[in-house]
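Hey, can you fold this one?
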Amino acid sequence: MKNVLRRCALRAALVVPFAALFYNPSTALAALVVPLGSAESFAVLGASTVTNTGSTVINGDLGLWAGTSITGFPPGLVNGTVHDTDAVAHLGQNAALTAYTTLAGLTVDHTLTGEDLGGLTLLPGVYFFADSAQLTGTLTLNAQGDPNALFVFQIGSTLTTATSSSVVFINSGGLPVGSVYWDVGSSATLGTTTAFAGNIIAAQSITLNTSATIGCGRAIALNAAVTMDTNTVSIDGCESTTGGGGGGGGGVPEPATVTLLCGGLLALISRGRQSRKQMA
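Sure. Predicted structure:
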């Protein structure tokens, strides 16, 4: 028994301090204060123009400020309200700029400059690209069961996805739409049939190529056009794409986890000793 207790205490002493470095409640709670404000109802919001080709579906509001035209609706369908250079769209653009600035000012947790997002499994946090960001394949976001999990990608210039790339969730349980943000320094381009997720706020333009989709997110261009071609953009929740359970991406257990494990082990040992005494 002494050996078991000694090993348990040693593991707790080693794991708890290091786990505390990775487990940061303030990062998770940051999702509650990202100020989308008047931009929250918009699924698509452009600055110069919003153009569409084909049977695009927008689940949320569509807006433009202070540009010249919204075209392609119909055949595109808007399950929301169209705000074409009105006061609501103006307020939405102002709020989006505030969100963009707030996101850009968050403390960076991990630098991914030069890495392709495809094939990665990431935990909640703030990820930084000094210049462009590329997604080729599948990016997995592991929310670790935290309903307040926040993923922020600060991108210095462009965001580009290859054909048929995707962003998927595990252990999310249905995150709110304000859980993933792509803060893009210039323009974003989603490749054909990309299944994307999260709120894209781009300083310049956003282009959704044929059949690209954005789930649980938005396409907001602060100074240029949003261009679409047979797409779907929805401000719905971010459901898990694959089943819960396993934690990917090098996750570290919360400090309390080790304590609970050791406590449970000690209780089992104590109960075993009592049972042996009663039998004797």
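The two ends are 19 Å apart (CA to CA). Let me know if you want another pass with a different chain boundary.
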